[in-house]
Amino acid sequence: MDNTSTLKRKHTRNVRAARVISAVLCIEQAVYGLAFAESGSLLQRIYFNSSLVLGFLFLITLLLPRLVPIKAGILYDLFDMVPLGVGLSIAYIRMLNAAKEYQNIPTIYLAVLFGGAVIFLLEYKQSIILYSSITVVSIIGSYSSLPLDSSIPFQADFLVNGAIAWAVSALTYASFLKTETQRELIEEKNRQLTQLSELDWLTNLYNRRKLDLYLVGFVQYRFAILFDLDYFKTVNDNYGHQKGDRVLVELASILLNTIAPNDVVGRWGGEEFLILTHEDGFALAEQLRKQIEVHRFVDDIPVTASFGVTSCKNKESIHELVRCIDLNLYQAKQLGRNQVVYS
Q1: Catalytic residue among 38, 184, 188, 271
Q2: Which of 131, 214, 266, 328 has the fewest CB atoms within 10 Å, counting from its CB?
Q3: Minimal CA–CA distance to 260: which of 229, 281, 246?
Q4: Would residue 123 show up in a list of annotated catalytic residues for this protein?
């Protein structure tokens, strides 16, 4: 599995989740402060301050990906833990300043604790560090600052809930990794199927099926080139089909290293190859002809090629285009082979 791409997707999901949640809660806290808290009260100040903090977190989620592209790295590893830390800090502030009697673990604390474990993706080390820190801070902070009911085992509650939250977080992340593995397997299978359906099995150039699709848009290219290896049957007869295949593979390498990245080249059939190019078609064909002629193929097999070239301009159909280059290729062979004919 590609660990880098997986981490990037994890960070992307966490940033988006933090953006949505912080925006919603920012509005929620402001509404609570206006509608449900007494004007000027401590509770109202807590709501408004919470709204400001969440609004600031929302701005961070907007700016951070623009300032630093989402990628694997310590910055986003730290940010993954920030939203949950902010949420729990707000919960603690409410408990410390607004709770008159601490009878049980507050709902908001559990909501942030377990909601964060489900929503945010944390690696196992991240979740251990975060939830162990949360548990320790919860126990020390509550026992030192809140009037606790001695009949309730708060310490055990914090430990149990922290452990459960970590387990939920670990299961969420394990599910994410499993999904990522399945996704990458599917993508790899799709890539293999694409290669089988679009690429020639021997040369790894486009096959006839893919070339037919490119020919539909032939008008966007300047020239079409069709060429054929001269007397290739003799090569197979004299040297064997395996050596003949080696010649085709080496030829494919020449083609890929010569044509421009935005041009198209493929195996038209047998020892015939088609090129659609934005360059000067005659010059490109002549360059390839010379390269093939001087190239030392396997066992120094002498290889030459004949080329037919035509302009894509003013061609009314694929049939007309193919007919023109095919006629030019035929003429190149009639004139003695190892040459370029252009009309």
Answers
A1: 271
A2: 214
A3: 281
A4: no
